[in-house]
Amino acid sequence: MNTLKRIDPRRPFTITAEGLKRITLGMTADVAGSLEVVASASGAAHRDQVKARRTTAAPQRVLLVAAHADRGALDDHARQTLAGAALIADTLTEVVLLVFGEFTGDAAALGADKLIELPMFDRRSFAPVDELNALAACVAAYAPVHVFLPDNATGDGDLGRRYAAAANASVATHVVEIDATHVASYVHANTAFAARSLPDVVLLAPNAVEPKLPFVGAGERVVWRFDGASSGAGGRESTVRDLGIEEIDAAQLALEEADFIVSAGNGVSDVPAFERLAATLGAAIGASRVAVDDGKFTRDKQIGATGKTVEASVYIAFCISGAVQHLQGIKDCRHVIAVNLDASAPIAKRANLTVIADAQETIAALNEAAAAARNARGTGAALLNSSAVAEGALA
User: Fold this and answer.
1) Domain holding 97: CATH number?
2) Residue numbers in the chain where pLDDT is lower than 50
3) Whether residues 89 and 203 fall in one domain
4) pLDDT at position 82
5) Which of 97, 153, 267, 276 is least buried, going by the fewest C-beta atoms within 10 A?
6) pLDDT at 12
7) Closest CA to 261 of 235, 293, 287, 230
8) Distance between alpha carbon 108 and the CA centroid of its chain, in Å?
9) How far is residue 231's CA from residue 236's CA, in Å, rounded to a whole number?
10) Are residues 19 and 147 in the same domain?
């Protein structure tokens, strides 16, 4: 016979600075108001539990993970790659993270024992030979048994292949399965599965590893200087000349490539004002299915499961309630800001910031603020970098 008592989901609770705290079974609501320990002991202990260090032993081997940072952080794919290395590392193995670009995140929480940051390599610059030399120099300094990189199209995958070719190292690409002894990938148009022993260079496919770890790394920041003259990659001078980034009108950019998007629902009645705001902020224009069906926007602007799937750093939604199809289309956006009169709209649960206000008034106020900012600067330039402004609002 089951003697366990059913836990009443509606049992008394109190709101504290840390959030909702359930009252331990058997206590009364009168006591709850004066005690902060009213939460279930096991539940509070679980929430406040500090993760243990993966290892404290003196390292004898090294696994090196290299990835590019974007605005001081690693994307999901890079975090998955780092987690993959940490999960297969034993107690005598150290995980070293080499970041190309500025990194302001918590390397220990991501599983790294050592962090090497190379802020001179920014995503806005193109220096493939210098990056190859830096990776080769780091390999020479730490002698890792394996090197891990995300297999993406934004620089890491290319860097991993360049390094494997220059160092004559064994390599596995598009890895979808990994453990301490082997890797595996799909071959023949995903009709077959190929496995091999762990190679020198592992290029991990996206979503092959769960990035949430049950432990933390040491997270030690290492001061490591790179002078750009490493001979580990052949000592070649760069034959690549960076012509810089050519700015284009955000309206000409495909939504899938846009880093900043403002999106309108059917409740946005003043479309010209909305388009002026997008132009001022330098943002691409998106729309909900209802707004497109109503003829306010063309079909190529539709975002959602039946439209475009976007990965913007900042996504501002005006008058979009957040149907499941639309939320599917913005699931990979970094920061979502919702402007809606309905605080209980589904998009509010997804949004990092929800503004409970009338969309037309908000658009008008933002246009006025943009005009004031331009006048204050004394130039006709656009507002400050819009992604930075929006991210600052979220901070």
Assistant:
1) 3.40.50.620
2) 22-48, 229-235, 379-395
3) yes
4) 96
5) 153
6) 54
7) 287
8) 17
9) 8
10) no
Q: What is the CATH number of the domain that holds 257?
A: 3.40.50.1220
388-to-29, 58, 371, 395 alpha-carbon distances in Å: 46, 41, 18, 10
Q: How many domains does the chain have?
A: 3
CA distance 355 to 348: 9
Sign of CA dihedral 317, 321, 325, 330: positive
Based on the fold, state whether residues 216 and 286 are members of the same structural domain: no
DSSP single-letter state for residue 245: P
Distance separating alpha carbons of residues 94 and 147, to the nearest angstrom:
12
pLDDT of residue 3: 59
The DSSP 8-state label assigned to residue 256 in this structure reads G
Burial (0-12, 13-18, 19+ Cβ within 10 Å), 82:
buried
285 within 8 A of 301, measured Cβ to Cβ: yes
For the entire predicted model, the pTM comes to 0.64
Considering only CA atoms, which of 99, 107, 96, 97 is closest in space to residue 68?
99
Contact, 347 vs 317, CB < 8 A? yes
- CA–CA dist 380, 376 (Å, integer): 10
Q: Which residue has the tokens 């003697």?
A: 3
